[in-house]
């Protein structure tokens, strides 16, 4: 293809070049990621997450800023910068980082995706090219984007893992400058790619070696240095519209859109009211006038115009159910301008509380649905169906929520049920590019034209319920055709991850060495009781030798300074508590040995551990205790360790135990023998005030807001859960009961993967299934029906009616002194209506990825569920093999806590129950066992 000006190509030129060029998989299309496919850097989303959570210590943050200001000019500069940014990942498992990457993609990074780049990638896929994202970033940043775009290959920087946990360092040199070029040259022959006829796209001058590896280099959104290189080499240059947050003009448009919409609606109602007084109209006429003015003024002040094809279908068949693909908050005013009036909508009940819009929705007779109450949901829909029969149309988004990318999401069936019930046609409204002007999470609007295609009405008169799935698929196919996404709407397979060369394994990061408590730990310490503990139960085979056990604890206390430190409050309470060393540790006080009476059963062991876990720690001593339970009938022993939650969480505790365990039963003569840690002095008031003042001076906002947020997270349960305990689980204050279960990790992984989830998703789905069966056993109707996918604005994957529980999910990672991350959580209202285990796995995964942290783990939940990384190989302690490791989390006001850790190929599940809440514990435990078995069975049902 020829082009008159190779230095200024448009999106159309790029796509035409692909369409006219060579076709087939031997042609590669290599895309840089940061700055090329997305506007900005994906590492920024991770950095913001870690800064907000307190992961990045000020020293590392300062070093990163200094390197950034000085400029990244060499591979060594970039490697130092990259290593500092990755340190916050230390102690996370691969599954954790994978889900964190997916969540940050959905909640932020996807909004910076260039739509032009999306369409360019789609063009290469249509041409049958081998499309590759080649990036110096890691798979956790790049793979979610590749999966969303249907790209099957990524080249990324490796991440170092040891014992199943990230060390906080790259596993080799980052794919930057020559490293990326070398990775492409190595990838091509193994995948049959002819580099001489292939394409490469990048925005940075550091990728000049990468661009030179192919015959068709393209500079996208280049900086000055790459633009000059492209001009010298004759490479095409194209620039895409910025996806940044926008400036004052974009903010003014957003404010204008809100004001114009609400003002127009209010003015229409006022004029309609005057007409009513004059006997010249009805209340409905007033609403319709308001809707039309809202659309006109809202779009005008937003700087948005409409280009509509098929507009005749908007008026030819009314009443109707108007469907629209949901991309943006702009959709509301776009639909108001399109339809003018004569319609209402269905929305989740939370929309009624949106300032301004909630009142407008109520005046427009929107049907608000409480998805936590099946009866109310059905009752709310009845007026909408009745309005259809009266001649008022209905607007519904069949996807249920706004898409994070231009790709069309799956359709729910609620809208189609409503159309069938009312006997009205369906009119598909295809919105092409509203998300380009205002992404789903944006607060600003870019001016431009929204392209809309209205497809011909679809008659539902002869539809039958048993063929509804096929009918829904037909309508969705029509959307895909209109959006030109038939060939590129979904990935064709899993993403193949190829990393660059691996490097040496470094010494693991130190654990628990800072003197001052972080804000989260201080909040736990000052607001929690001595019972705010977590416990790990290990099964040792055989029972360890007493002398070797004592020696192991003495050595551990030298390896981990926290085992020889107490919490000291600064004088006058100024500043955060600090860790102060003690002269000596009375190991006999911290380590207790008991022998079970005959017969030494498993039940006796669990009861002994439950009593040990419930006893408070002595706050004047180091905050840990251990219990060795002997006398088990098989000759093994139980070993329980209890740690206060201000020291670490489950992630850090498991990492600590892994650090103190051995890979062999024999004594390791090469193990480190650190001296006894020095005694640290308690803080003075002057010193504490000086430290606090220094923090306020250097980081005023971060210091103050960090303290306030930490206290708020601990003290205030999520508003959504307050006062909404499930009645069946409302009791509190009974005897703590401990139970344990296990399942082969490979089987759980295979079952969850068969439903598109991770082992954690499978585990969470199993617990939700147990809660469903527990309620059914106790006579609660959990199958009330609900209405699937009826939301007109946004929907949550699990919240579609029926009996609910408030489920605490681990969805974020907070600060924790290098110990592996303090889990943060969110409490969601999870219904118990999902009977199929595969559907539960998919729904749970969607929920976890779309939910952000709202408080400390467990706060305000009926049941807390968590999965923490474990140890992936055989380990010994004091000469005894650790055959199982069960995590037992604190109840923290919950009816139950269910925690899973992977240990040497086994998924070990620890359950702690409040007997006053879970009055039939055997039923609940068997429900978890059955739920795990259901998930495992999914993997066995997959055809080979």
Protein described:
The protein is an alpha/beta fold. It contains 30 helices and 31 strands. α23 links the parallel β20 and β21. The chain is globular. The N terminus is likely disordered.
Count the helices. How many? 30
Task: Determine the fraction of residues in helical runs and give it as a percent range.
Answer: 25-40%
Q: What can be said about the biggest beta sheet?
A: 7 strands, parallel
User: What's the pLDDT, averaged over the residues?
Assistant: 79
Shape: globular
**Class by alpha and beta content:** alpha/beta
With strands numbered from the N-terminus, the spatial order across the biggest sheet is 8-7-6-1-2-3-16
Q: Regions with pLDDT < 50 over 5+ consecutive residues? A: 1-5, 66-73, 488-492, 504-511, 684-723, 785-801, 812-823
Extended strand count? 31
| Straight-line N-to-C gap | 46 Å
Rg, please? 30 Å
Please state roughly what percent of the residues sit in beta strands, choosing from under 5%, 5-15%, 15-25%, 25-35%, 35-45% or over 45%. 15-25%
């Amino acid at each position: 293809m020829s082009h008159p000006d190779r230095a200024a190509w448009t999106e159309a030129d790029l796509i035409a070049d692909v369409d006219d060029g060579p076709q087939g998989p031997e042609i590669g299309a290599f895309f840089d990621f940061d700055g090329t496919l997305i506007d900005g850097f994906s590492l920024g989303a991770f950095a913001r997450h870690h800064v907000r959570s307190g992961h990045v210590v000020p020293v590392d943050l300062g070093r990163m800023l200094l390197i950034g200001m000085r400029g990244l000019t060499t591979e060594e500069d970039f490697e130092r910068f990259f290593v500092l940014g990755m340190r916050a990942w230390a102690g996370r498992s691969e599954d954790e980082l994978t889900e964190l990457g997916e969540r940050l993609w959905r909640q932020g990074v996807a909004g910076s995706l260039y739509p032009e780049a999306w369409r360019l990638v789609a063009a290469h896929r249509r041409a049958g090219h081998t499309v590759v994202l080649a990036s110096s970033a890691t798979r956790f940043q790049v793979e979610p984007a590749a999966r969303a775009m249907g790209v099957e290959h990524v080249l990324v920087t490796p991440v170092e893992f040891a014992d199943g946990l990230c060390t906080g360092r790259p596993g080799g040199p980052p794919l930057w400058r020559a490293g990326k070029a070398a990775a492409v040259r190595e990838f091509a022959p193994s995948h049959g790619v002819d580099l001489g006829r292939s394409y490469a796209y990048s925005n940075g001058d550091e990728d000049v070696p990468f661009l030179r590896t192919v015959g068709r280099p393209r500079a996208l959104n280049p900086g000055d240095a790459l633009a000059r290189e492209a001009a010298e080499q004759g490479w095409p240059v194209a620039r895409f519209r910025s996806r940044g947050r926008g400036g004052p003009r974009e903010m003014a448009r957003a404010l204008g859109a809100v004001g114009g919409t609400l003002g127009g609606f209010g003015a229409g109602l006022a004029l309609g009211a005057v007409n009513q007084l004059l006997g010249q109209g009805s209340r409905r006429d007033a609403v319709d006038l308001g809707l039309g003015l809202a659309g006109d003024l809202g779009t005008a002040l937003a700087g948005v115009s409409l280009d509509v094809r098929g507009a005749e279908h908007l008026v030819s068949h009314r009443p109707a159910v108007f469907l629209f693909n949901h991309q943006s908050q702009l959709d509301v005013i776009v639909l108001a301008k399109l339809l003018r009036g004569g319609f209402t909508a269905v929305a989740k009940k939370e929309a009624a509380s949106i300032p301004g819009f909630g009142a407008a929705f109520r005046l427009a007779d929107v049907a608000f649905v409480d998805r936590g109450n099946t009866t109310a949901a059905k009752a709310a829909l009845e007026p909408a169906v009745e309005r259809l029969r009266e001649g008022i149309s209905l607007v519904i988004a069949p996807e249920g929520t706004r898409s994070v990318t231009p790709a069309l999401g799956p359709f729910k069936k609620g809208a189609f049920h409503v159309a069938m019930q009312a006997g009205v046609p369906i009119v598909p409204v295809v919105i092409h590019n509203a998300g380009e002007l205002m992404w789903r999470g944006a607060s600003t609007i870019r001016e431009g034209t929204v392209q809309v295609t209205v497809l011909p009405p679809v008659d539902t008169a002869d539809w039958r319920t048993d063929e509804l799935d096929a009918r829904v698929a037909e309508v969705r196919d029509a959307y895909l055709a209109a959006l030109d996404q038939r060939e590129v709407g979904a990935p064709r397979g899993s993403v193949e991850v190829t990393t660059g060369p691996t490097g040496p394994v470094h010494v693991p990061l130190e654990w628990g060495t800072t003197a001052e408590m972080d804000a989260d730990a201080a909040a736990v310490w000052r607001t929690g009781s001595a019972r705010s503990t977590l416990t790990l139960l290990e099964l040792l085979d055989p029972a360890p030798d007493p002398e070797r056990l004592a020696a192991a604890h003495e050595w551990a206390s030298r390896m981990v300074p926290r085992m020889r430190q107490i919490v000291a409050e600064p004088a006058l309470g100024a500043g955060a508590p600090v860790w102060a060393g003690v002269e000596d540790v009375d190991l006999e006080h911290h380590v207790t040995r008991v022998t079970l009476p005959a017969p030494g059963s498993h039940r006796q062991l669990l009861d002994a551990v439950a009593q040990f876990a419930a006893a408070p720690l002595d706050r004047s001593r180091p905050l840990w205790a251990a219990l060795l339970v002997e006398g088990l009938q098989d000759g093994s022993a139980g070993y329980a360790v209890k740690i206060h939650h201000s020291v670490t969480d489950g992630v850090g505790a498991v990492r600590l135990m892994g650090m103190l365990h051995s890979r062999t039963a024999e004594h390791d003569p090469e193990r480190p023998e650190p001296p006894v840690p020095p005694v640290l002095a308690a803080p003075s008031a002057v010193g504490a005030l000086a430290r606090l003042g220094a923090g306020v001076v250097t980081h005023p906002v971060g210091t103050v807001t960090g303290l306030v947020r930490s206290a708020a997270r601990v003290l205030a349960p999520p508003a959504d859960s307050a006062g909404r305990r499930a009645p069946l689980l409302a009791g509190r204050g009974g005897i703590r009961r401990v139970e344990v279960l296990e399942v082969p990790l490979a089987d759980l992984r295979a079952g969850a993967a068969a439903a598109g989830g991770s082992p954690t998703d499978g585990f969470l789905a199993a617990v939700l299934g147990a809660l469903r069966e527990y309620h059914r056993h106790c006579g609660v109707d959990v199958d009330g029906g609900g209405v699937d996918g009826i939301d007109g604005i946004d929907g949550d994957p699990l919240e579609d009616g029926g009996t609910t529980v408030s489920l605490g999910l681990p969805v974020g990672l907070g600060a924790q002194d290098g110990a592996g991350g303090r889990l943060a959580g969110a409490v969601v209202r999870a219904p118990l209506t999902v009977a199929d285990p595969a559907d539960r796995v998919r729904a749970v995964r969607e929920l976890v990825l779309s939910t952000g942290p709202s408080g400390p783990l467990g706060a305000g939940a009926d049941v807390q569920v968590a999965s923490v990384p474990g140890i992936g190989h055989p380990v010994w302690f004091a000469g005894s093999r650790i055959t199982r490791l069960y995590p037992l989390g604190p109840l923290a006001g919950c009816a139950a806590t269910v925690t899973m850790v992977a240990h040497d190929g086994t998924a070990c599940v620890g359950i702690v129950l409040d007997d006053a809440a879970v009055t039939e514990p055997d039923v609940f435990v068997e429900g978890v066992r059955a739920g795990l078995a259901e998930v495992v069975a999914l993997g066995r049902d997959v055809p080979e």
